[in-house]
């Protein structure tokens, strides 16, 4: 039976109460990778608190990073699920088993397309919520098109972005030096420059501290 995507996606975004403050000229860089549930929670908080960020879909980690896959560590994975469920419940959201994908490049290409349309954070939140609360595959072009349409983007342009080789090449060229400069080793990851150095924060639970520091340094 064909799924009614508009129905599945209708509850993904909260644009009635949240405001996308995507801005490439904002001092706060928000690195994200949509596999992570903590990226989902960070996007929810950023969007609903109206925090201006430059959302950067990760194209890789800084050289020297040793990636520890939670799925390869059963005790850690069990804890992660418990932790995310608790945090989500406090935001009025219900965690569901996610559908993993073979390649994360297509959905992050669309995240970049959305960013260029001023909807980068909205897309990250909506896509992450589709993954973590509705068991939808972010590799499915119909899902991506429905998410794009729901947040006011052109659905067909979003489909095309999934396989956009030029778009991907531009992302790698632009973001790889930034990732190296900020030494990004995990997500969600935040960085801003002040006082002649880069200030870095890892994890959605550092958002409050990051904002306090940015304000104290007159960055915001």
CA-CA gap between termini: 50 Å
CATH class bucket? Alpha Beta
Mind telling me which CATH architecture this is?
3-Layer(aba) Sandwich
Lateral strand order in the biggest sheet:
2-1-3-4
Rg result? 17 Å
Which percent bin holds the helix content?
40-55%
- What average pLDDT do the residues reach? 91
Can you tell me the number of structural domains? 1
Strand proportion, as a percent range, falls in 5-15%
The CATH superfamily is identified as Glutaredoxin
3D shape: globular
Assembly state: single chain
Q: List low-confidence stretches.
A: 10-17
Describe the model.
By secondary structure, the chain is an alpha+beta fold. It has one domain: Glutaredoxin (3-Layer(aba) Sandwich), CATH 3.40.30. It contains 9 helices and 4 strands. The protein has helices at residues 5-9, 37-48, 74-90, 105-116, 120-134, 141-150, 155-162, 165-182, 207-216, and strands at residues 29-32, 54-57, 189-194, 197-202. The protein has a 4-stranded mixed beta sheet with strand order 2-1-3-4, sandwiched between helices. It is globular, with a radius of gyration of 17 Å.
Walk me through the topology.
Elements (H helix, E strand, L loop, with lengths): L4 H5 L19 E4 L4 H12 L5 E4 L16 H17 L14 H12 L3 H15 L6 H10 L4 H8 L2 H18 L6 E6 L2 E6 L4 H10 L4
């Amino acid at each position: 039976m064909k799924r009614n995507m508009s129905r599945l996606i209708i509850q993904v975004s909260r644009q009635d109460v949240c405001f996308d403050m995507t801005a490439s000229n904002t001092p706060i860089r928000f690195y994200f990778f949509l596999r992570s549930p903590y990226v989902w929670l960070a996007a929810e908080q950023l969007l609903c608190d109206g925090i201006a960020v430059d959302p950067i879909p990760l194209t890789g980690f800084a050289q020297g990073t040793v990636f520890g896959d939670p799925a390869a560590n059963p005790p850690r994975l069990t804890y992660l699920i418990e932790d995310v469920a608790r945090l989500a419940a406090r935001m009025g959201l219900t965690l569901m088993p996610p559908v993993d994908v073979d390649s994360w490049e297509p959905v992050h290409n669309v995240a970049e397309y959305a960013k260029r349309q001023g909807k980068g954070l909205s897309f990250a939140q909506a896509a992450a919520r589709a993954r973590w609360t509705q068991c939808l595959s972010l590799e499915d072009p119909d899902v991506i098109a429905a998410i794009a349409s729901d947040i006011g983007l052109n659905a067909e342009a979003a489909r095309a972005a999934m396989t956009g080789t030029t778009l991907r090449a531009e992302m790698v060229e632009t973001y790889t030096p930034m990732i190296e400069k900020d030494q990004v080793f995990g997500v969600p990851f935040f960085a801003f420059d002040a006082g002649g150095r880069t200030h870095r924060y890892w994890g959605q639970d550092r958002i409050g501290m990051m904002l306090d520091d940015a304000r104290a340094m007159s960055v915001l």
